[in-house]
Specification:
about 300 residues; five-stranded mixed β-sheet; Thaumatin-like protein 1b; Osmotin/thaumatin-like_sf; alpha+beta; six-stranded antiparallel β-sheet; disulfide bond; about 20% helix
Length: about 300
C-alpha cells in the first residue's frame, strides 16, 4: 500500500510538472543595441495581461517574461524614452504606448517593429511573426528555443537598420536631443493615408490589396517580415512547445536558418545575460518524466 501511495504521488508530481511546462512559455527579451530599449507588451482581447507590460532593458541585458497558455499579443521596443522631471510623465520618441508610465496599457504608436504571437493556436501550434506593417523603428529577431512537433520553428525578423535607407517621404525625423536624425521609418499607410496602402475600403481583400513599391522596400530588406497586411505566405511561422528569444539589434551571424539572404542567429544562439549564458534549457519534459519513472521501477525491482 505504501509503495502504491509513493508511486501515485510521484506520478502526480510528474503530471503537474508536465502540464506546467506544456501550458506555459518563456519569452526572453535581449537588448544587443548600443542604447537602452524599453520593451512594451500588449495582450490581445480576452487574453491575460502579462506582468510587467513595460520595462527598461539596458544594453547587453536579458530579461525573461513568463507567458501563460493560449496567450496572444505583441511585443515591441520603445526608443529615446524619458520621464519629465516635473510631471513624472514617461514618453518615448518611437513606439510610445500612450500610458505616460513605464508600463503599457495600450499598443505601440507607429512606426514600430512588432513581434506578434498566438500560442497554442490551431493544431496546438504557436503562430508568430515580425511585422513591419506599422512601420519600423529598430531591428528585431524572434528565435524559437527547444520547439518540437509540427511546424518549422524558423527564426524570423528584420536584422538590418532601415532608418538610414528609408525613403525620405517615410522618414520620421526627431527633434530635441536627437534632432535631425531619422529615428523610424513610417509605413506608406501612415504617411499617406491612401486605402491602397492601408488595405482598406475597396482594397480590403487579398485580391485587391497587392504589394506596392513601399511595401517592397521593407520586403526586399527583410524577406521574412510582414511588409503589408496580406503578406501572410512568407511571413507567418509556426512551432510547438517552444520558448522564444526576442532580440533587439541582433548581431548578424551565419545560420542554417538564414533570413532569405540576411544573416541571423539561429535557434541555437548563445546569449549572455546577467545570470550567465542562456543555453538550450533542461531535458525535454517527456525524457525527464521517463527517467523518473524508470528509476523508481528499477528501485522496486532491485530492493524489494
Amino acid at each position: 500500500m505504501a509503495k502504491a501511495q509513493v508511486f501515485l504521488a510521484l506520478l502526480s508530481v510528474c503530471f503537474v510538472f508536465l502540464i506546467s511546462r506544456v501550458l506555459s512559455a518563456t519569452f526572453t527579451l535581449v537588448n544587443q543595441c548600443s542604447y537602452t530599449v524599453w520593451p512594451g507588451i500588449l495582450s490581445g482581447a480576452g487574453t491575460t495581461q502579462l506582468s510587467p507590460t513595460g520595462f527598461q532593458l539596458n544594453p547587453g541585458q536579458a530579461i525573461p517574461v513568463s507567458v501563460p497558455a493560449g496567450w496572444s499579443g505583441r511585443l515591441w521596443g520603445r526608443t529615446f524614452c524619458s520621464q519629465d522631471s516635473t510631471t513624472g510623465k514617461f514618453t518615448c520618441v518611437t513606439g510610445d504606448c500612450g500610458s505616460g508610465t513605464l508600463e503599457c496599457t495600450g499598443g505601440a504608436a507607429p512606426p514600430a517593429t512588432l513581434a506578434e504571437f498566438t500560442l497554442n493556436g490551431a493544431g496546438g501550434l504557436d503562430f508568430y511573426d515580425v511585422s513591419l506593417v506599422d512601420g519600423y523603428n529598430l531591428p528585431m529577431l524572434v528565435s524559437p528555443q527547444g520547439g518540437t512537433g509540427a511546424g518549422n520553428c524558423s527564426v524570423t525578423g528584420c536584422v538590418v537598420d532601415l532608418n538610414g535607407p528609408c525613403p525620405s517621404e517615410l522618414k520620421l525625423m526627431s527633434t530635441g536631443e536627437v534632432g535631425g536624425e531619422c529615428v523610424a521609418c513610417k509605413s506608406a499607410c501612415e504617411a499617406f493615408g491612401d486605402p491602397r496602402y492601408c488595405c482598406s475600403g475597396p482594397y480590403a481583400t487579398p485580391d485587391t490589396c497587392k504589394p506596392t513599391d513601399y511595401s517592397e522596400f521593407f520586403k526586399s530588406s527583410c524577406p521574412r517580415a510582414y511588409s503589408y497586411a496580406y503578406d501572410d505566405g512568407t511571413s507567418t511561422f509556426t512551432c510547438a512547445s517552444a520558448d522564444y528569444v526576442i532580440t533587439f539589434c541582433p548581431t548578424p551571424s551565419t545560420s542554417q536558418k538564414s533570413l532569405g539572404g540576411q544573416h541571423a542567429g539561429g535557434s541555437n544562439v548563445s546569449l549572455v545575460s546577467s545570470s550567465g549564458i542562456l543555453n538550450s534549457g533542461p531535458l525535454p519534459v517527456s525524457t525527464s518524466l521517463m527517467i523518473i519513472i524508470l528509476a523508481y521501477l528499477w528501485q522496486l525491482r532491485h530492493f524489494h
